[in-house]
Structures are given as C-alpha cells and as structure tokens.
Amino acid sequence: MPETTTTTPYAAALLRIAQGLMFLAHGAILKLGTFGLAGTMGFFGSIGYPPVLGAVVIAAEILGGLALIAGFATRWVSLALVPVLLGATLQHAGNGWLFNVAGGGWEFPAFWTVTLLVQAGIGAGAWALDGRRATPRPVAVAA
Known about the structure:
The structure is a single chain. The protein has helices at 3-46, 52-70, 74-92, 107-122. It has 143 residues and is an all-alpha fold. The chain has one domain. Helix 1 crosses helix 4 and helix 3 (74-92) packs antiparallel against helix 4. Mean pLDDT is 90; it is low at 133-139.
C-alpha cells in the first residue's frame, strides 16, 4: 500500500481538527468573549449587514468548530462555513493582501476558504464520527 494512502486519513484529521480549533477561537474567544454578542452584532450593522448576522456567524463558528473537531458531517460543515470565510475575505479585501496591515488583509480568510474546500473534498479522515458506520455490519451466522 502506498504511503500516501496510509497517511492521508491522519493528514485530513489534522486539518479538520486545526480548522475546528480556529473556528472555536474566532467564534467563542474573539467574537463572543472579546467583543461580546452586542459588540459583534453592532460591528456587522456598522459595515452594512443585518446585525443579527453577527449572532449567526458566532453560532456557525462555534457549532461548526465543534462539528469539525468531532468529525461530524465534515464535508457539509466545511461547505456550510465557506460563506462565513468568503464574507470575511470580502470584509478584509480593501485592506490589502497581507493580514498584518491595519484592519487585516484578505490572504488569511482566503486561504482558510481554500482549506475548507480541501476538507470538503477529502472528507473527515481519522478519528471522526463520520467514520462510524450508520448500520451494523452483517454478521455471519453458522448453519
């Protein structure tokens, strides 16, 4: 068996868990913990979005992060989070490319968008709820 076949599930799991932790950090620690629900909703309103979208993004990032860490519905969750990152990319687009500029550039959220698409393509990998069988395997019965 080629080495890539045996290591791919672990690489997919590493990507999935890292993304999940990043979403938790951005949703729970940055948006909810640092800015608060009201602050995040106010920011969304200040940039022309419905303020309630801030709450939706917080929920998506926290729940999506937990789902990715657990490996639950990984392909669907990855695709569902793409619009969140596309929105972040658009928000940072006017600041320039590098994320170290004032207001943050667009390269980090754009790269993160690509990693979500890769995750959707390769699946959950090892140590994931997605890997569990929904139905039991047939059992051979002795005659």
